[in-house]
Amino acid sequence: MIIYGWRGVTKTVDRGNFFCPQCNAEQGYQRKSVRRFFTLYFIPVIPLNKLGEFVRCDACRGDFREEVLQADPRHAAGLRDAVRDAIRRVMVAIAAADGRLEDNEVSMLRHIYLDLTKTTLDEWELRNEIDAAVATPIDLGAELGPMAPHLSDEGKDLVLRAALLIAGADGHVDEKEMATITRVAGILNVAPDRFDAILGAYEQAVSEEP
């Protein structure tokens, strides 16, 4: 019996250095090309159509669109600040949503923020910010709306990932928290299929935790 089919084959076509928006630093990269091949007995034998190209960071292994190679580091610094601000405000809004401030929430928020942004949040400034959000809920539309056009898809992904992590810090994401996260995705103009992929990645990561 002849076994044949099709599959994508990824090949490195270029290497260099770039400013990685996820590492917030200059790193090496590999530019990857993906092409569909006709396979015979699972062996790629005939190249077919090109499926696309992407850039992979050597350090964090993050994948980005080719446009990332054209990013101006001076502009990237401003974008990093915008991403950090968006992450902080969304996490504060979710932490304040239940109307109380718990020590474990503050500790978890600082840990998640450091992990995602490589930046430390001052504990007392953060407590004051959450207290203020408890007293006067954050208007996410007003705060995130102006940022949305300036955030890359990867930056928006980080904001949503941060929201999911802080919402799930107590072991589950409740309906109110998910409604807030879904609203954030809408404010940031995240495509539904991309949002579904982010949710799927989060759920898979949670299911794989020991």
Describe it.
- The chain is of the alpha+beta class and 210 residues long.
- Helix content is 48%, strand content 24%.
- The chain has seven helices and four strands.
- Helix 5 packs antiparallel against helix 6.
- The longest helix is centred in the middle third of the chain and has 24 residues.
- The protein starts with a strand and ends with a helix.
**Overall body shape:** elongated
Outline the biggest β-sheet. Answer: 4 strands, antiparallel
Quantity of strands, as a count: 4
The low-confidence parts are: none
Number of helices: 7
Class inferred from helices and paired strands: alpha+beta
End-to-end Cα distance: 43 Å
- Helical residues, percent: 40-55%
**Mind telling me the C-alpha Rg?**
20 Å
DSSP strand content? 15-25%
Q: Can you list the strand order of the major beta sheet? A: 1-2-3-4
User: Mean pLDDT across all residues, rounded?
Assistant: 81
Order of helices and strands: EEEEHHHHHHH
